[in-house]
Amino acid sequence: MSKGFLERMLFLVGGRKQHSWGLAIGLTRGMVDGVFRRGQLPSAEALAIIASAERVNLTWLLTGEGPPYLVLP
User: Fold this and answer.
1) Nearest CA to 5 among 67, 72, 70, 59?
2) Residue 56 dihedral angles phi and psi, to the nearest 5°
3) Which end of the chain is less packed: N or C, by CB atoms within 10 Å?
4) Measuring CA to CA, which residue among 56, 55, 54, 28 is closest to residue 42?
5) Residue 6 burial (CB < 10 Å; 0-12/13-18/19+)?
6) Tens digit of each residue's pLDDT (9 = 90 or more) over 25-62
7) For residue 56, which of 33, 30, 25, 19 has the smallest C-alpha distance?
């Protein structure tokens, strides 16, 4: 996983505890550990959960391009 991706994930979590944040949005402890401790890219399922819960722009999350959040009407 790129350093940039991890930085963007840390930005999303903000001051929240990583495991508490993950469990609150529907990720498993293993998914959270995979990203933050083992440096793994989340599965498509986990990315969909993150995108939905945080209203994050997946293009930004994966590449750093574009705005971080989706603005919905």
Assistant:
1) 59
2) -90, 150
3) C
4) 28
5) middle
6) 999 999 999 999 999 999 999 999 999 999 999 999 99
7) 25
Check whether 9 has a pLDDT greater than 90.
yes
- If we measure between CA atoms, which residue out of 47, 52, 64, 48 comes closest to residue 11? 64
Q: What is the pTM of this model?
A: 0.88
34-41: long-range pairs with CB below 8 Å, 24+: 35/1, 35/6, 35/9, 36/6, 36/9, 39/1, 39/6, 40/1, 41/1, 41/5
